[in-house]
Specification:
mainly alpha, two-stranded parallel sheet
C-alpha cells in the first residue's frame, strides 16, 4: 500500500475557517499581562528597556523613582506613572496604529481625529 505525501498546505486547507471572537481592550490587556508574567526572559527584557529609557529621559528623576520602587513606597506607582506620562508627551510619534483584529472598541472610538 502506497501512502500519498502530505503537503503542508493540506493541513490548513482542509480546516474550516472559524471566526474568532472579538476581544475587548481589557481582555487583550489581561491576556497580554498573563503572557508577560509567564515568561521570565520577557519580564527581564521589559524591565531592562524601561530602566534604560527612564534613565535616558531624566536621570535624577529616574533614580528617585527606582529608589521608591525598591523601598516599596506607597508613592512609587504614582511617581513611575507620572514619569512615563511625561516621557510619552515629550516624544509622542505622529504615527497611526491600526487596531488589533482581536480588540473591539465602541464604534465612536474608532473615528480618527485630526490635530
Amino acid at each position: 500500500m502506497k501512502i500519498a505525501p502530505i503537503q503542508p498546505a493540506d493541513f490548513t486547507g482542509a480546516l474550516p475557517s472559524c471566526p474568532r471572537p472579538t476581544l475587548t481592550k481589557e481582555q487583550v490587556f489581561r491576556l497580554w499581562r498573563c503572557a508577560i508574567k509567564d515568561d521570565d526572559r520577557l519580564v527581564d527584557e521589559i524591565i531592562e528597556q524601561l530602566y534604560e529609557n527612564i534613565i535616558a529621559f531624566d536621570y535624577k528623576r529616574a533614580e528617585c523613582v527606582v529608589e521608591l520602587i525598591v523601598r516599596r513606597s506607597l508613592t512609587a506607582s504614582c511617581a513611575l506613572r507620572s514619569l512615563l506620562k511625561d516621557m510619552r508627551t515629550v516624544s509622542t510619534p505622529a504615527v497611526f496604529i491600526a487596531p488589533s483584529p482581536f480588540y473591539s472598541e465602541p464604534r465612536h472610538a474608532r473615528q480618527m481625529t485630526r490635530p
